[in-house]
């Protein structure tokens, strides 16, 4: 057993501690198997059937050895949690009861298998072999610095850091459950036990939120190989967010998580290699990740409508669903290739299987005159618009990628999608008062009418485009007719033209961004961050994050990051506008100042922008 202990210690020092535990289970199972074989030699009757050619007569004992090793591992965790002056603490009792309930079917299988081989065999195992293996696992826990806080509670009379020890005990249990998950159900060969493991993991993760925020819990579970289990456990919570003090931080966490998850998937499948565009690979992948999320939302919406028998819908609602699913093709036409688009859709939908956009939604049914149950069409459509609006506004407000002008296509996509949703709500007379109050999602806010400011900005951008086209033609004519001495000046003018084009691209990004953000900036100024109502994700336990005073994420990054730059250029005077429109004015004013300063800096007698117009009116 000393050799086994050394192997366990060596395996436990590996980079992934749960992977080390898997090897520990293999080694423990082998030692148990050898102990059974050795004990059989001293038995009066053979446990093994007669030898048959081509038959593994030890198969039953190999399977039982793995069952016994897993049983010993979890008993070691129970042993750690049930000793000392902390054994009656809530978290200790939770761990003991949860793991004991999980072990019941496994111990029953072990007892039945050994008892039918020999009446005294189970007694020998439970009094001799099992305590020995349990002790080996406990020794490993006590010798690992990661679990010092959990194992320290075994000492009577010593002061405890209860929060730290509780968290360490939970993580000890989760790491052991992660190792059992990686070992696989085939080795354990106990269907009832294997079917209970995911539920116990979910309970441990729910309890974990009593001690750490959601983002920290994700990192802890990801590090031990339970990322998939975390997503399936808290996916409903992402779809139906909880009402917490740090609600904005949680939404930001989910947005960041799905973006990175989709980005990794798209990079793995090299979707970008099928497209030929002027964007860099980084920009292209980020755009495709955002588009991909809304493809998954659109397909889920399509299925939700179909499952409620709504196939014949208004053009506006159908238009929104079509835009969510196929809007990416408008900005990247190369995706229209059937093979490319099909692969793209499969990748993003598979990656987001854990996110139930319409989780737990069962629309109320009404009874018609003939006694048949009918689902309210208005309620279903309201739910669809509410869900789509929630995710649109969440990306607009919390996606850091949209702050980069390079992602102008994604910003335009979201801006147009939000406008379509607002128009649809008005057309169908779906006001916020008609939206169900118990679905757990923020109510869509009314669109802000920016009036003449936006119209003026649109005209300005059109004028810039016309001017750029005209300038390009003029420069081409001058290039043909100019002498060699003037070509250097022409190159400088062409460089100026490229600079103006880049400024125009930034202006387009600003337009798409502030159009979508304007109303939410105003809402933040008047009523604070978005707050959903009611329903929780799993609803099993409360969350410590409710009580943690975390700084609120500003509804507007624009206020924090760009306003000093605008102030440097100054502001037009003599005009009072609403807060959201001030942001729009600042964006336009920034563009105006940049263009003016640029032209003034580059002003030359012959080849300035104004000079070209004078030469060629």
TrEMBL record:
<feature type="compositionally biased region" description="Basic and acidic residues">
    <location>
        <begin position="432"/>
        <end position="442"/>
    </location>
</feature>
<feature type="coiled-coil region">
    <location>
        <begin position="454"/>
        <end position="481"/>
    </location>
</feature>
<feature type="region of interest" description="Disordered">
    <location>
        <begin position="432"/>
        <end position="452"/>
    </location>
</feature>
<feature type="region of interest" description="Disordered">
    <location>
        <begin position="524"/>
        <end position="558"/>
    </location>
</feature>
<dbReference type="GO" id="GO:0005743">
    <property type="term" value="C:mitochondrial inner membrane"/>
</dbReference>
<dbReference type="InterPro" id="IPR044202">
    <property type="entry name" value="LETM1/MDM38-like"/>
</dbReference>
<keyword id="KW-0175">Coiled coil</keyword>
<protein>
    <submittedName>
        <fullName>Uncharacterized protein</fullName>
    </submittedName>
</protein>
